[in-house]
């Protein structure tokens, strides 16, 4: 259960998502921000609520952060400035757990971050998910499936974000 401080942060993000008038359901936006930041405990840089990485086109500020990823190969490659810190096989699974120093976008404001978050999901890799952007549960399912881009490498991401969406709908809407 989320604490009062965590719910206050969630309500701020929800209000910002409504105010930004993005096309993605605010409950999904808020739930994803809560999952990616640990309910506000780990905002990246000034205002990166979603763990949006630098990518190849970004020319703004970046911040290097240690993160964890799951891949089905022990030889996953990353482009500089990202670098692998360690790789461990997940017991009993065909997965490898990576610790990686990654470059993340450092947004000047939550509004800028929300706009970039929306642009991310408008890319062609998420075209199967985009039609469901007003249904937070279906949208979450679509970004986690194996069709097009897969948003998260954590195998429990869908279960976790679904639970958080339910909390956001009960406590913030």
Q: Can you tell me about this structure?
A:
InterPro entries: Glycosyl_Hydrolase_73, MGlyc_endo_b_GlcNAc-like_dom. GO terms for molecular function: amidase activity. This protein has a single domain, classed as Lysozyme (Orthogonal Bundle), CATH 1.10.530.10. Helix content is 38%, strand content 16%. It is built from 5 helices and 3 strands, in the order ααβββααα. Strands 1-3-2 form a 3-stranded antiparallel sheet, with no helix packed on it. A hairpin with a 6-residue loop joins β2 and β3. The radius of gyration is 16 Å and the shape is globular. The two termini are 17 Å apart.
Q: Notable features of this structure?
A:
3-stranded antiparallel sheet; globular; alpha+beta; 173 residues; 5 helices; Lysozyme
C-alpha Rg (nearest Å)? 16 Å
Q: Could you say how many structural domains there are in total?
A: 1
Looking at the overall shape, the CATH architecture is Orthogonal Bundle
User: Would you report the number of β strands?
Assistant: 3
Main sheet makeup: 3 strands, antiparallel
- Mean pLDDT across every amino acid position: 94
> Rough shape?
globular
- Helical coverage, percent range: 25-40%
CATH class: Mainly Alpha
Would you tell me which CATH topology applies?
Lysozyme
Individual helix count:
5
Low-confidence region ranges: none
End-to-end Cα distance: 17 Å
Overall structural class, as computed from helix and strand content, comes to alpha+beta
Strand order of the largest sheet: 1-3-2
Summarize the helix and strand pattern as letters: HHEEEHHH
In terms of DSSP E residues, the strand content is: 15-25%
